[in-house]
């Protein structure tokens, strides 16, 4: 079948693959520090008019940037497939992410800087997500087909480690010291603002091995205009001939649904722990770090399992385990039991994501790899608002966070049910 053909190209050596994985280490600092823990909290608490308005404004900005990725990803991916190389696209969007992130340094703790912060945070997030489209598309041209699962898992696991290390540096060196380092002024929140510079520098420096040592697909010798014309034509043709790619379409719909559950669980897990089990900020921080550590371990370990039993089975095992553990969290009453069942969640959270990437890498036709990863990005972003919205709506209607959390399990079950109809593509 066309969906599982191999390109027959020579695969890269270990140095090139380690350099490819290291880009995960480099770029994971951005979501860890900017969009999840430090800068997002700084914006909502210190820049916005009040935390409620700030939370809403930040969510809208991230949603709009995700929508831009969903629209642009498939188009740019199709153009890149026509042109050939992917690294120039990764480089361009990495530079844009570095520059936009660095501009966040100028966000003062004043309401007049709200628009500045939102614009550059949205640009940086768009650039981060779009670079990943082209980065992911390089995996099947680099890794031996029988090791795609391992390299995807190792990269994903290394990303968790890199994000945590950068987050730890941001907290220990910049945010938490009583005396601000490097002459930074605490009255204008410069230590917190400097975390944006740390992330920009982290991404710029640690992405260098990827650009130096990871080989790229040869160019097709097309002009930019011709590459755009062919790319758009190919993308239109893909949608018109969707039946030829039915397996990929079913997988992307399944992934869209269970990924909504994954993202919702990740985004509301801390809220659930704080409200239902009374965790304070320190406990929440420890909980977040522990979840990221276990997710990294899971991604590393399940890389071998992915190559052994296949990505589809790895996803089904991971999402099934998340469903069972999530159900247990609905009924436990004590904080101790919450920890007992919450910690293993991370072990399966990472593999569900890394195995999804490896399954897409195996299914995508070589001539359409980047376009397909653009559609892959679309499937992860197009309905990203649905899970949190349903969680919030059910929680409000039932006046119970436990009822809200139960909706996540529905996303898992429906996503797995659809995935059963996807052919098990293996090495």
Quick synopsis:
This protein is an all-alpha fold and 427 residues long. It contains 18 helices and no strands.
Range of strand content: under 5%
Shape: globular
N/C terminus separation: 14 Å
Provide the domain count. Answer: 2
Mean pLDDT: 84
Low-confidence stretches: 1-10
Number of helices: 18
- Helix % is over 70%
Give an overview of the whole structure.
By secondary structure, this protein is mainly alpha-helical. The protein contains 18 helices and no strands. Residues 1-10 have low confidence and may be disordered. 78% of the residues lie in helices and 0% in strands. It folds into two domains: 11-240, MFS general substrate transporter like domains (Growth Hormone, Chain: A, Up-down Bundle), CATH 1.20.1250; 242-427, Growth Hormone, Chain: A.
């Amino acid at each position: 079948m066309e969906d599982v053909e191999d390109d027959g190209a020579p695969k890269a050596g270990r140095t090139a693959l380690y350099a490819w994985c290291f880009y995960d280490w480099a770029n994971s600092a951005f979501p860890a520090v900017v969009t999840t823990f430090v800068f997002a909290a700084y914006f909502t608490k210190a820049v916005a008019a009040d935390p409620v308005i700030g939370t809403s404004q930040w969510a809208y900005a991230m949603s709009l940037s995700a929508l831009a990725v969903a629209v642009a990803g498939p188009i740019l991916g199709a153009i890149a497939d026509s042109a050939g190389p992917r690294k120039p696209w990764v480089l361009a969007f990495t530079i844009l992410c570095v520059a936009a992130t660095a501009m966040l340094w100028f966000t003062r703790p004043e309401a007049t800087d709200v628009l500045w912060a939102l614009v550059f945070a949205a640009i940086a997030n768009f650039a981060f997500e779009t670079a990943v489209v082209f980065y992911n598309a390089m995996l099947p041209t680099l890794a031996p087909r029988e090791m795609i699962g391992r390299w995807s898992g190792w990269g994903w696991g290394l990303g968790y480690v890199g994000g945590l290390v950068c987050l730890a540096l941001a907290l220990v060196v910049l945010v938490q010291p009583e005396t601000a380092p490097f002459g930074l002024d605490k009255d204008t929140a410069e230590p917190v603002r400097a975390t944006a510079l740390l992330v920009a520098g982290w991404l710029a420096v640690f992405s260098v091995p990827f650009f130096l040592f990871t080989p790229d697909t040869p160019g097709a010798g097309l002009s930019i205009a011709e590459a755009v014309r062919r790319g758009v034509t190919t993308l239109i043709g893909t949608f018109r001939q969707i039946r030829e790619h039915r397996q990929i379409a079913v997988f992307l719909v399944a992934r869209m649904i269970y990924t909504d559950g994954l993202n919702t669980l990740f985004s509301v897990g801390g809220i659930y722990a704080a409200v239902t089990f009374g965790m304070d900020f320190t406990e929440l921080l420890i909980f977040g770090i522990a979840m990221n550590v276990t997710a990294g371990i899971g991604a590393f370990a399940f890389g071998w399992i992915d190559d052994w039993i296949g990505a589809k089975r790895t996803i089904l095992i991971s999402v099934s385990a998340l469903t069972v553990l999530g159900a247990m969290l609905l009924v436990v009453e004590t904080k101790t039991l919450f920890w007992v069942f919450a910690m293993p969640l991370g072990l399966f959270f990472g593999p569900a994501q890394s195995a999804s990437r490896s399954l897409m890498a195996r299914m995508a036709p070589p001539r359409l790899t980047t376009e397909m990863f653009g559609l892959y990005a679309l499937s992860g972003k197009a309905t990203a608002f649905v899970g949190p919205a349903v969680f919030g709506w059910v929680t409000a209607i039932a006046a119970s966070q436990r009822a809200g959390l139960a909706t996540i399990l529905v996303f898992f079950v429906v996503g797995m049910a659809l995935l059963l109809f996807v052919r098990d593509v293996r090495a």
